[in-house]
Structure formats: C-alpha cells, structure tokens
Amino acid sequence: MYSAAAAASSPPRRDFISVTLSPEEAVGVGGYNNSKAWRRRSCWRKWKQLSRLQRSVILFVFAFLAVCGVISYTSMGEPWKSLTNKPLDEQRTEPEIPGLKLANPAVLPAPQKADANRGDYPELPPQKPPKPPHVRRGPPNLQIKPPRRDVRLKTQHDTSSVGQELVQADQNEKTEKSVISWRGAVIETDQSTEPPSSKMKEPEKPTSVEAEDQKEPVPINDRQLAVIEAFRHAWKGYKEFSWGHDELKPLSKSYNEWFGLGLTLIDALDTMWILGLKEEFEEARKWVANDLVFDKNVDVNLFESTIRILGGLLSTYHLSGDNLFLEKAKDIGNRLMPAFKTPSKIPYSDVNIGRGTAHPPRWTSDSTVAEVTSIQLEFRELSRLTGDEKFQKAVDEVMKHVHTLSGKNDGLVPMFINTNSGQFTHLGVYTLGARADSYYEYLLKQWIQGGKKENELLEDYMRAIEGVKKHLLQRSQPKKLTFVGELAHGHFSAKMDHLVCFLPGTLALGAHNGLTADHMQLAEALIETCYQMYAQVETGLSPEIVHFNLHAEKGHKDVEIKPADRHNLLRPETVESLFYMYRFTGDKKYQDWGWEILQNFNKYTRVPTGGYTSINNVQNPSNPEPRDKMESFFLGETLKYMFLLFSDDIDLINLDKYVFNTEAHPLPIWVPA
Ligand code: DMJ
Description:
Blueprint: H1 4-9, H2 23-27, H3 36-49, H4 52-85, H5 88-91, H6 162-175, E1 178-180, E2 185-188, E3 207-208, H7 222-242, E4 247-249, E5 254-256, H8 263-275, H9 278-291, E6 299-301, H10 302-320, H11 323-336, E7 350-352, E8 357-359, E9 366-368, H12 369-372, H13 376-386, H14 390-404, E10 416-418, E11 424-425, E12 429-430, H15 437-449, H16 455-472, E13 473-475, E14 482-484, E15 486-488, E16 491-493, E17 495-497, H17 503-512, H18 517-535, E18 545-548, E19 559-560, H19 573-585, H20 588-604, H21 632-646, E20 658-660, E21 666-668
Bound molecules: 1-deoxymannojirimycin.
EC number: 3.2.1.-
InterPro entries: 6hp_glycosidase-like_sf, Glyco_hydro_47, Glycosyl_Hydrolase_47, Seven-hairpin_glycosidases
Subcellular location: Endoplasmic reticulum membrane
C-alpha cells in the first residue's frame, strides 16, 4: 500500500489514485463519532492530505460528471415531455405484430376517428367535436313519416282545408322538437340547413335515435292507397323482369339498358320512402349497397344522370339519413366532373364515368341549354354536404356565364349553347318546352334553395316570365285556354309540349315564395289548360305535343294533335303542377283532376303482368298501341307527385323546407322559410 507522503516525495508516473487512511480514522478509534463537526473536520483533513494532482483529478471527475448530467437532462427532456403529453392509448407500447394483442388492454378503449368515411376527401377540415343536441344539423328538417296503415282510412272529403292545416302545422312546429322517420333518422324542427360558404362546412352526419315519432301522422286516404297499389304493380314488373337494369319493358318482359346503372331503381328510392314501402326500399337499398358500381366504361348523359341518379341518391340520403346514399352520390358526382373540362366551362353533354373523359354529341359541339342549367340544385347540394366546393363552383360558373350572355329575348333563352365559344347557337327560337324548360324552373328553384339571396337568379327568372307573357302567351278557341306557344324567328307557333306543364307549378311556387300574385293567376290559367290537354283527348291522357286552335271553327276543339305527337310517355308535368296548385290553394278540383289522370293511366297503360307502359296513340281508346317501355320517371316523379297531390299533410315534403329537383327528388332548402 502506498502512503500519500511517499507518493509526494517520489512522484513516479501513476495512473491511479491511492488514498491512505490512518488506522484510527479507518476504524474510528476512540469510539464511533458521527457528529457533523467531526465528519466535516475529518473530510477536510483527508482532502488536505491529498496531493495537488489527486485533488485536480477528483475535481475534474466531478466537473465532468456534472457536465454530462446537464447534457443528458436536456436531451431527455423533450421525449419525456411528449411522452407524458400523449394520450394514454398512444403511450401504450402496442406490439407491431399484426394480430398480436396486449395481454392487458387499456381500461378505456382508444377514441375512434370522428368519421372513417371521409378518407377520400383530404381537403376537408378536421372533424369538429359533435355539437350539443340543440344545434344539431342534418339531415335537415326531415318531415317524412311513414304513412300509417293501421289507422282509419281518411278520404279526401273529411280533411280540413289547407289553410287550416297551415295554421295547425305552424302550431305543431312551435311545440315539437323533432320528428322521426321510420328508418330512425331524426330531425330537429328548428334546425336550418346552412348554405355553403367560401369556407365549406363539414359533411352533415345524420343522427339516429331510438324514439317514436312525436307527431301524429296524417292518415293516408284511399286515393293515396291507389297510388301505392299502382306503384307496387309497376315495381312488380320491374322486379321480375328488369331488376337492377335501367328500364322495364313490360310487354316483352325484359329490360332496356341506357346507362346500365339501375336507373329506375335509383329514381324510385325516395318514392318508396315517401309511400312508406319499407320492404321494397330495403331490398332496393341492398342492391345499391352491393351492386351499384359507377366504375364502368359507359357514356352517360350529364343532365339525365345528375337529375335522376345524383338527385335520387341525395334526396334518399336526406330522407333516410343513410350514409350509403351520400357515399354513392359523392362517387357519381366526382365521376361527372370531367364534363366541365371544356374551353368555355359549359359542360359537355356526355361523360364516360369509368374513364373520366367527356365529349359532346357526335354531330355537334353544342350542349342543350336546359341540360347545362338544370344540374345546379344537385351539384350545389353535393358541395354543401361534402364540404368540397368544386361541384358548386362548376355549376355556378355556368349560371353566371349564361346570365351575361347575349341572344336572349326578354329573358327567353335559345335552346343550344356551344361548349367551345360559350355562346348561344341557333338563335331566334324560343320555347318553354324541350331543351329549354328546366332552365326557367332552376332559376327559381336555385334562388329558393339558396335562401332567396342570389338576386341574379331571381332577376333572370322574373325577366323570363315577362318574356313568356310578352311573346309566348296566347288563348285558344273556343274555350279560351291560356297556353304557352313557341317563337321561331319572329313567327308564333301555337304548339305546346306536355313538358311545358311544369310551368304552372313553378309559377305557383314562386308566388308562394313572395313573387307577384299575377304569377299565381297565370298558374291557375295554365294548369286548366294542361288539364284540358288530358280531358279533351279520347283516352283522357295527354299527347306529347298539342297544337291549339287560334281561330274558332265549327266542330273544332281547342286541342289539335298531329299523328307524330300522339304518344304518351307517362310523363309527370301536369300531375306535378296539380300537386303545387293543391298545396297552395287547397282547391280539391286539382286532386280530382289528378285522380282522373291516375284512373286513365290504369285503364290504358297498365300491363297486367306487371308495370306500366308508354303508349303510341292517346286518341285510340280501343288500341292505344302500347310501346313496351316504362320510363324511370313514372316511378320517380309521376306516382310520387300523385301521392303527394292526394295527401292533406303539408309536412309530407314541406315546400318551405324542400325544393324538388326537376326529377321530383326533394332537396333541402338551405335556409328554410
Ligand atoms: C324528366 O326526366 C324530368 O322531369 C325532366 O325535367 C323532363 N323530362 C322528364 C319527365 O318528363
């Protein structure tokens, strides 16, 4: 053992430190003394006994340890901090081997992602926490209730007037908080549907509750039952012979494929919901869930697929609260977007939804004015629901552009627009029939949908109705029926398409929304004419086109029909307008007229083995010449409007809360009246 003194006298090179303790100090001679003073003195003495080198080395070691301590503290600090801030579930050291579970799972389950279905919309803002119940939104203002089958049938004659119902409905609204549909979607009556803003909202999530409908449903009556029976008969044919295909061919018991997307089934979904056909709805829903695929190499017409498919899916989503329909709507909506990639942004008529390409018809680069201006309600609503502005932007741009275009005649538009130049073509021909009709309808309905704020739309609508009055209105002989003719290069033609019969309903809707009362007078006159287009014909069914007599001639009726125009395609427009007229006036003659029409459809177009068919000749009751085709709009529109017309429940699609697209699919008004 080396002594410290020896070490100091002969300083050989050492690479260790030796500390020599005296025997007393080592064993504590004199007894154990552990006093503080003794310990301090003893330490000091030992320190003094060390050589300078030894002291330096010890000091250096201490200093080194201190520096290391500080460094390691700062570098450990962050991970430690973040570790302690992480949610508990993330702090759990889950093994990364799939299928291997923790032996002791956490007591609380890990929080779920707010909405797993939103993965395909990366641009959406993160989901906010759910709002408290009193501000809950969507699906908006659902007023649909299943018609009650177990209650006493109520005929049209024992119902109170629409005026009284309006008052009653108002009172009900004040006292009620929510209504619930038969599939469990609940809507708060005081919630409004908000318009899209520049900063888009998140998708609305419907809320389901297990509760009973708080509002006593208005019982369905025998005329509504007759509509249900007609629907079931049509559906029977569709189901047996054309399930999942576009259109039933009821005579040949086969089907017609147009887009190959189950057009009739989708068009009919919300009708089944409104009619309370649960079983049929569920079966159709399964088809949508399992078999409806849009990833197909097929050309679809932008307008038709928007109003029937996108519109049908959106309205069914709103009525049912079932997210499946919104997901499908998003899918088809995205696939239709290539149509807008044109030099002028006026969309092409056709889109290949599988390939993502679009093109005009083979013979022209024009699109139809009605087609490019009657897709707005649907695309705007899709933006509101998804939070993705692109849909609304595309269709709003079309409207803004058309608003500025020259070539109008007192608000009346030509029938074609060029996708390259963005200009109207075939100038000088004006009609409210085919190729222009729903332009006028959607001016008003977009204005209503958006909460009556978009003044340009209203301006264009008001100007156009003035244009109709100035250039297209005439009276027939001998009955002096007011009708809407056509203007071709300054020449008036007394020709009116059945399609024009949407107009009385639209005018009445405008008047109901505060527009001038003379629109309502015009609506009353025009719906009388549309009814006469049925009543003056041998089968009691309207032809596709009529010509009115302008001069009284002995033995001539007001309505003339050309051989090429005497077909009937089961179209809805007159029944649609009857529905609006009854809702707003309560005049039961409108229900009676609709009832006559339904009976005539049953008499001349019903196919015994299932389905209804278009006919070739409305003038021949003994042989109306069935055409072997049931259009999807017969289920989507005609029967739906019949059912609503016969109903005395104004909350069965409340017109202050919903606006119908041009295929009779109700979409919510963003700021309901
Ligand atoms: C439907 O597809 C729509 O109502 C469209 O607006 C016009 N044509 C048919 C019904 O007639």
